[in-house]
Amino acid sequence: MSEVSLPRHVHRVRSGGREYFYYQEGRGTAHAGERIRLPDDPQTPEFWNAVRQAQGICGPTPTDTIGALIDAFECAWPSLPRKLKPSTQDQYRRHLKRVRKAWGELPASDLRPRHVDALIRQLGETRPGTANNVLAVLKAMCGWANGPVELLMHDPTWGVVRFEKGEGHKPWTEEQLAYAAEHFTGMLRRFFFLSRYTGQRISDVVRLSPTDEDEGGFRLTQKKTGAQPWCPIFPELKSEMTTWDRRPGPFLLQEGGRSQGKPFSTNQMWKAFNRERAKHPILAGAVPHGLRANAVIRLRTGGYSAEQISDMVGMSVEMVTHYSRHADRKASGQAILRELGERPNRQIVKQLKNGKEK
After folding, report:
1. What is the β-pairing status of strands 36-38 and 18-23?
2. How far apart are CA 216 and CA 165, in angstroms?
């Protein structure tokens, strides 16, 4: 059996080529509690039901509900062939909370596509992106449950349609870019230049350090996807970096309060940006992820292919095309104008009485 993450006070015993699981509080101490035998498979709802019972949660706990299915799914993550990164697991848990809130006590066998469709439509009225994410996680869980674990015998997400993808995060306007370059100072200025010219997510920008430099670029492993792009350090960023002190650790360190000198978390950088944005009306609507779009558009207008940009930024070719669609349309229109301007003046053509040209 693949290793799984066990809850507190649960321990594994291997004997005679088999694994056994027990619940015991204070194990190995003078105040050890009762040793309670648990089911053999920690990837089943029954296992988690027994854990809850051992923890003192009294009363019968259903083992065939959507809530129990979610418990079993989360327990199985470490053993999945395709591993889920911690950040992805956090996102899954957040979206599954909505599923649990809607149907936690509903028998899993009773969940139908009409129920799922109703929830997705309700969420999509105001937050289509969230609705799509909830549906995607629910599909992943049902796909797993319908596999070899055989916890479901039907797919309640069958036929439920995603909302159309929206415009996504808008790139910053030229005015916003110029304003930030002129007025941002300190770590926020560093964050702006790193984001604008590398096209990385906040979670990766806050981790960038001198040790990531590699022969004129940044080589990094993205936190969300595990992709390993090589980002060129363009002249604008290189010039800005000449003013930065060279030291171990991330380029971005907090500048005040009890956390002064410590690295930023993603959430802390978001808060710092939001505070600064609130001071400048011209930045209304600008978000850090929009700079990712600016980086892609800059590369696209520079003549680089979607495949090259994918290697440099670390996003799929499809997303590169999605982000650069405005630039591509404008470039196509301008190309037509240039072609028209380069054509020789057309001769004046007279029409004959029969309608033919002379």
Report:
1. antiparallel
2. 36
Q: Which two tokens stand for residue 270?
A: 């978001």
Q: Say if residues 23 and 36 touch (Cβ distance below 8 Å).
A: yes
Which two three-digit tokens encode residue 92? 């899954």
Alpha-carbon distance of 330 to 301, in angstroms, equals: 10
Cβ–Cβ under 8 Å, residues 70 and 76: no
End-to-end CA distance of the chain: 86
Q: Which single residue is written with the structure tokens 């997303």?
A: 319
Rounded to two decimals, the pTM is 0.59
Greatest Cα pair distance in the chain:
113
Higher pLDDT, 171 or 44: 171
DSSP state of 101: H
* Cα-to-chain-centroid distance, residue 15: 41
Kindly report, residue by residue over 8-47, the tens digit of the pLDDT. 788 888 888 888 999 998 888 888 888 899 988 887 777 8
Residue 300 neighbours by CB under 8 Å, 6+ apart = 306, 309, 320, 324, 327, 328, 331
Q: Does 64 score more than 70 pLDDT?
A: yes
- For all residues of the chain together, what is the average pLDDT? 85
